[in-house]
Design goal:
CATH topology: TIM Barrel
Number of strands: 10
Shape: globular
Structural class: alpha/beta
Strand content: 15-25%
Strand order of the largest sheet: 3-2-1-10-7-6-5-4
Number of domains: 1
GO molecular function, one term: isomerase activity
Largest sheet: 8 strands, parallel
Organism: Streptomyces thermogriseus
Radius of gyration: 18 Å
Number of helices: 9
Pfam family, one: AP_endonuc_2
InterPro entries: IolE/XylAMocC-like, Xyl_isomerase-like_sf, Xyl_isomerase-like_TIM-brl
Protein name: Sugar phosphate isomerase/epimerase
CATH superfamily: Divalent-metal-dependent TIM barrel enzymes
């Protein structure tokens, strides 16, 4: 029997609202009518390395509850661990102490997610360092993620790994390789970025949604063009969104579908407003091509 179609719940990522204080960003999303937020742990939004993390997390939890916002915790901050290396250090670095720093960040994210009642914790593998063979990189990845998965299981929070263009784990096929290497742990799930499907997956995005459904724990969404890893406002790329959203609803997915526009913070409130209007319209008219009305062309 097919799953009952779910009412999709839309969120917006705080990495696309980096110029706003977190309280202001959350209030904006609630006022616009979003169901939730993809909360990136970063120095400007719930810094995971600053003192009193538990107390600050508790205040954010109260704020989310007061605004009626759901949350997924994201860990893609660019310079949160190293002011000189974007997304560094990674789970694949040669130095075990550097890998341990990234693992520690993910362990902190699991605790934050548990305290917030989040749907999932998002993460990615990182880029394979120069001179590192793939077998070694996969070994480092599985070893680095093992304690995180243990913590996620104890906390009851899924860890949702994202295939990221250019990373060791770049595709859905790579996610399944990780799953097999780890022994298919219960709390290992998938973050599916719809734009990334358009960018490099062999299947169309709607088919990617259906193929990923059993492992789907978090969804990111934006427009994109084939072969170009550039997150675009809706209508500026090539994706036909109504079939994608129809497929997502048909899977019974219950988490957030979060708009991911990290390079558009300079106009974050504008894009947040237009994005929700676009998604609601696209979700209301399945099997019809989405128009560019309401996009940022």
């Amino acid at each position: 029997m097919s799953p009952t179609p779910a009412a999709l719940r839309f969120g917006y990522g705080t990495n696309g609202l980096a110029d706003l204080r977190l309280d202001d960003a959350l209030a904006l999303l609630a006022d616009l009518g979003y169901d939730g937020v993809g909360l990136t742990l970063d120095h400007m939004h719930l810094d995971p390395l600053a003192p009193d993390l538990a107390d600050r997390t508790r205040r954010v939890a109260h704020r989310l509850d007061a605004l009626g916002l759901e949350v997924t915790v994201e860990t893609g901050a660019r310079y949160v661990l190293d002011p000189r290396r974007k997304h560094g250090p990674s789970l694949l670095d040669a130095d075990p102490e550097d890998r341990a720093r990234r693992t520690d960040l993910l362990l902190r994210a699991v605790r934050v997610a548990a305290d917030l009642g989040a749907h999932a914790v998002h993460c990615f593998s990182g880029v394979t360092p120069p001179g590192t063979d793939r077998d070694t990189a996969w070994k480092r990845l599985t070893e680095s993620l093992t304690p995180v998965l243990d913590a996620a299981g104890a906390a009851g929070v899924p860890l949702a790994v994202e295939p990221e263009p250019g990373h060791l784990l770049a595709t859905l096929a790579d996610f399944h390789r990780l799953r097999r290497l780890l022994g298919d742990p219960e709390h290992l799930g998938l973050t599916l970025d719809i734009g990334h499907c358009q960018c490099l997956e062999p299947l169309p995005p709607a088919d990617c949604v259906r193929a990923a459904a059993p492992w789907l724990r978090h969804v990111q969404i934006e427009d994109m063009r084939r072969g170009v890893h550039e997150h675009l406002p809706f209508g500026d790329g090539e994706i036909d969104f109504p079939p994608v959203l129809e497929a997502l609803a048909a899977t019974g997915y219950r988490g957030l579908t979060v708009v991911e526009l990290p390079r558009h913070s300079h106009a974050g409130p504008h894009h947040a407003d237009l994005s929700l209007s676009f998604l609601r319209r696209a979700a209301s008219f399945p099997r019809r091509a989405a128009t560019c009305e309401g996009s940022s062309r």
